[in-house]
Design brief:
- Helix 2 packs across helix 3.
- Strands 1-10-9-6-2-3-5 form a seven-stranded parallel beta sheet. A three-stranded antiparallel beta sheet has the order 4-8-7, covered by helices on one side.
- It is built from ten helices and ten strands.
- By secondary structure, it is of the alpha/beta class.
- The chain has one domain: Rossmann fold (3-Layer(aba) Sandwich), CATH 3.40.50.
- It binds 2-amino-2-deoxy-6-O-phosphono-alpha-D-glucopyranose.
- 2-amino-2-deoxy-6-O-phosphono-alpha-D-glucopyranose (GLP) binds next to loops.
Length: 258
């Protein structure tokens, strides 16, 4: 296998695994370690995270019950984002995704998984409330991130400054198309707005873990990691974080070596 030559790799911060399941195993181990250290987790949604959360569930379920309970009792995580207008009862909401992936199977206590409230009457005020709640909790120790096909992280759509804060914003057409599968395949059924942590809250996390799989992400991952940071590729701001680690499969890392 040809290893990509990137500054991140030279610093040992890019890990390339053969396939998504191997990526998931690496990331799940890191999440488990973080839970043992009582870290506050920043969590993400999306298809990339499904095998990650499956691997985490599996590891937790293999632990003796008292150990598992001790780890799960202290669970307090903050998700990146939520669609405006959707609540936990809507199967396409990120709240429902998190409940299905982790909350239900791990029997987490109500309130353990925090997300912006998509049903809030005033989404701008809700974004401020959510940012304040995160700050009051002490910020994020380990932030898990996926990568949007247009370079977004969370829902920080391009163009986006590194200083952007938690806010309610308009989703791009590209993102509504990318996420249409959860809405019966119809991009028009995807909500027009979302609440997202901003690049500033994401970059304030103590550690970042960017997880990218699949050939469809190869070009945008190359731009995010190898081009100078710029507003057109919000994920490129992550290069500036001293504790960024990237875990990718070979398909997603394919464009990093040329
Ligand atoms: C979504 C989420 C992001 C996620 C990204 C990638 O829109 N807001 O947090 O990382 O897009 O999604 P996927 O993993 O399904 O490709």
């Amino acid at each position: 296998m040809i290893l990509p030559r990137t500054p991140l790799l030279v610093q040992g911060r890019l890990r390339v695994e053969p396939h998504p399941e191997a990526v998931a195993a690496v990331v799940a181990e890191q999440l488990l370690t973080a839970l043992r250290q009582r870290a506050r987790l920043g969590l993400a949604t999306g298809r990339t995270m499904e095998p990650v959360y499956a691997a985490l569930r599996e590891r937790l379920q293999q632990l003796p019950a008292p150990q598992r309970r001790a780890l799960l009792e202290g669970w307090r995580s903050f998700n990146l984002d939520e669609y405006v207008g959707l609540g936990p009862a809507d199967p396409a909401s990120f709240a429902a995704f998190m409940q299905q992936q982790l909350g239900g199977p791990l029997a987490l206590e109500p309130g353990a998984l925090q997300l912006p409230d998509g049903r809030a009457a005033d989404p701008d005020a809700e974004a401020l409330r959510y940012a304040a709640a995160l700050a009051a909790a002490g910020g994020i120790d380990l932030q898990l991130l996926g990568l949007g096909s247009n370079g977004h992280v969370g829902f920080n759509e391009p163009p986006c400054s590194a200083l952007a804060a938690c806010r309610c914003l308009q989703l791009s057409q590209a993102t509504r198309e990318q996420n249409a599968a959860a809405f019966g395949g119809d991009p028009a059924a995807v909500p027009e707005r979302a609440i997202t942590l901003g690049m500033s809250e994401i970059l304030a996390a103590r550690r970042l873990l960017l997880v990218v799989t699949g050939a469809a992400k190869a070009q945008i991952l190359r731009r995010a990691l190898l081009e100078p940071p710029c507003a057109q590729v919000p994920a490129s701001w992550l290069q500036q974080h001293p504790q960024l680690e990237v875990v990718a499969d070979q398909a997603a890392a394919a464009a990093l070596s040329h």
